[in-house]
Amino acid sequence: MNSIFSGTRLRDMIRSIRACKTAAEERGVVRKECADIRASINENDPHDRHRNLAKLMFIHMLGYPTHFGQMECLKLIASPGFPEKRIGYLGLMLLLDERQEVLMLVTNSLKQDLNHTNQYVVGLALCALGNICSAEMARDLAPEVERLIQFRDPNIRKKAALCSTRIVRKVPDLAENFINAASSLLKEKHHGVLITGVQLCYELCTINDEALEYFRKKCTEGLIKTLKDITNSAYQPEYDVAGITDPFLHIRLLKLLRVLGHGDADASDLMTDILAQVATKTESNKNAGNAVLYECVETIMAIEDTSSLRVLAINILGRFLSNRDNNIRYVALNMLMKAIAFDDQAVQRHRVTILECVKDPDASIRKRALELVSLLVNENNVKQLTKELIDYLEISDEDFKEDLSAKICSIVEKFSLEKIWYIDQMLKVLSEAGKFVKDDVWHALIVVISNASELHGYTVRALYKAVLTYSEQETLVRVAIWCIGEYGDLLVNNVGMLGIEDPITVTESDAVDVVEDAITRHNSDMTTKAMALVALLKLSSRFPSISERIKDTIVKQKGSLLLEMQQRAIEFNSIVDRHKNIRSSLVERMPVLDEATFNVRRAGSLPASVSTMAKPSVSIPNGVAAAPLVDLLDLGSDDIMAAPSSSGADFLQDLLGVDLGSSSVQSGATPGPKAGADLLMDILSIGTPSPAQNNTSSVDLLSTAGINNNPSNALDTLSSPALPHIATTASAGGMFDLLDGLTPSPSKEATNGPAYPPIVAYESSTLKIEFTFSKSSGNPQETNVQATFINLSPNTFTYFIFQAAVPKFLQLHLDPASSNTLPASGNITQNLRVTNSQHGKKSLVMRMRIGYKVNGKDVLEEGQINNFPRGL
Amino acid sequence: SDISILSLQIRFILLQNRQGKTRLAKYYVPLEESEKHKVEYEVHRLVVNRDSKFTNFVEFRTHKVIYRRYAGLFFSLCVDITDNELAYLECIHLFVEILDHFFSNVCELDLVFNFHKVYLILDEFILAGELQETSKRAIIERMSELEKLE
Fold first, then answer.
1. Residue of B2, B3, B60, B64 to mutate for A, most A C-beta atoms under 10 A
2. Is A784 domain-assigned?
3. How many structural domains is chain A composed of?
4. Exposure pattern of A145-169 as b/e (b: 16+ CB <10 Å)?
5. Which of A295, A325, A830, B81 could be joined to A254 by an S-S link, Cβ 3.0–4.6 Å?
6. Which one of B22, B28, B82, B133 makes the best mutation probe of the A interface by having the most chain A beta carbons within 10 Å?
7. Is A615:A626 a contact under the CB 8 Å cutoff?
8. pTM > 0.90: yes or no
9. pLDDT at residue A613 above 50?
10. What does the pLDDT look like over A486-535, one tens digit per residue?
11. Rounded to an integer, what distance in angstroms lies between the CA atom of residue A389 and that of residue A379?
12. Rounded CA gap, A39 and A47, in Å?
């Protein structure tokens, strides 16, 4: 390769390629070179082969295809000279890999070269074999390689050891053959051979239990001594890195000891001294030392328990946390998360440092630290930790606020001790990071507030104060508006003052100011504005003295460009104007929201439909929510149909009058009833369910009953089922008539109706796959499939992967499986989504392939699934 | 306790410059050419944009990549998620030291025009995804022995 010929020409080619200014130019140069090379190959002149291959390798590195050069590699390898062989093997490793059939042709050359008299040639062969051999080649040449492990030259021994590592990876059955040779390597003095020997033993131990047993019994003590020697050795310039003699060898030895000690008390016992020594004596001011310490900690955690060692290990991690190098902090956090499982106490001691890491400039460290902190929270430290986290929330980066606030909320909810503490923390979070807080979180807050009747006054006052300062936090504003609407009277009259409170003076006008602000502020969204309108309606009853002003505000919204606001305004205005007598009962204090039901619903995204509705009561006294609470709840849930991700929170949305998400005009796939108007209608049990389109103008609901000035008549008429149906915005579907006991419009769950029977998609003696089907609403082309994989064998499958391919008219989406490990007679599930663009014309069909490992062997099962039910 | 004790090895080693040109690509697991190109593209994108204040480890598919930048070159190693990151940082550094010694103050151009030698050096340092030699001196010596045979 250093001959004048190839050196110059190769360099020239490289130069001319580098001189190209555009991709097209480069392609041109490469094309010409390839043409020359091809021509040269055809001439079969051995002279140029060497140089040609070198050029091809460079071209390959640029990303161009070079298959035509593969045979040249073979010819060069078969040549007698060392330089030819060398470039031939190099080319082989670059241009081919184990999956290519061409590689098999090299086996013979390899065999010869492994037996070559020139040890450098032997080295070439071992290198190539060790880097790219296939399982077959491994099997063929294993005996050769095994023999070479004991060759006189250490360079060969090293290479043979690592080559063997690959061989046993490819063909685990052969592991036994290498045990003896490998153990002899452990006695080596040459570092290179020793480290390769250690690695080979490690490999053998992980794939073969007998090997593990053997090494554990026979070699543990020797390895410990080796580690001791190297730890205590004098300065060796050749191997020294930052004061440590061959840290790589340290690390490999520690890894091997880990395998030997894991699960075996005796072996673990033997190593405690050396582990303690490494843990305490290793210098940790440079990366090399820390790398060794890290490995030492991993080993301590993996072997059988000696709590003093574990404490030592965790202390090392604690020190890592304060290291300036963020790499070190990162690995420490990772390990601490694992360590918590063993020794929560020990990790707790480092809580303060971990908390500091939550404030780290590096985002991935912050994230991990936050995870870790949340694992450390318990009843004793939750208050302190929450305070620290909230304090940090105030100054943290915007992009971290979301994660941080979500974490704080989940901690607060999980550990909420006293309601007042919970409310206080939530208010702080909402004030700092309200815009990141998810709907279900602030809904939950409202549920709690509603249930804490002794705190209503305190809460509404706190919210009032907060919203004056943090009016840009949308969620805070919403919660505040709801509370002011509900408990406005408590606010202005300082009712229910707690000892810790300072009295504040809030006039009715002040309170209404806040609510009005929410409507008029330009960056309020629909939900907030609509909630504000409802609050105003409530306040018009609670604050009769400024009812006129409130009415004016409502009237102004009649001209709103937002349909929802317009409608609400018109309806509320009508109530304020003409139906003062029932107004107060309409907006009476909300009944306490049922926490238990809310939590259950929220926890499991309940199918929205309730199959039976509560029986209506026929007589409705005075419009008060006479129906038992559970009816109201069922009401809400029945009305929710659309969003597949509907959760229990939706029912709360309805009660709050907030579900303004979709204004879909189609019936049947509609969200819950809108706004206060629907809520009122529910409470009054009026209105017929009708999946009507957005029909007639927003008619005043009560006036359609033809009532003029006769209030009592109104009520009577209300109870009649003969009411014409009331226009609402599109969501009419789902309105209930408690009186008539009409069934709700079919929920989306019902559209699942024509049940597609589950199928056995595949069955072999070892594996069974079942598919169950469901349709998502709204899109007949889409089918959700839940695949269940059942292990029929008595062995555990690991690294289980399911792959599927479908024809072009189908689209397939796979969710991650529930697990990659399938225990004997166990099962795992995985969800798929198939979209059939030829729905109705062509049935589903799928080819699938399953890969897994059992007893160290790779297994592949394939099949085609033709028995999908028709019509999917 | 479930410490997973797996077969741990280096899966591939990449040397790329800031523009994404691959100066060395050694794979210890089989991948199609097109897959290799995708990998190289993805890894480059991952490492080239990372601020120096971030860690030298980045998750890559189901593994992780340990990387370090030396002048205009990114040295990346792909290893198992559970493996010792700090150790591989040392590994990268040792490799760079060897190159530096062999080429006397190595620069990118050295690696371009002598790419075949870079592979030879690598093959004396790592084999089958495992460490073959930890002495810089030993590797340099071996290289000069081999050069004499050419």
1. B3
2. yes
3. 2
4. bbebbebeebbbbbbbbbbbbbbbb
5. A295
6. B133
7. no
8. no
9. no
10. 898 888 888 888 888 888 888 888 889 999 888 888 778 888 899 998 99
11. 16
12. 13
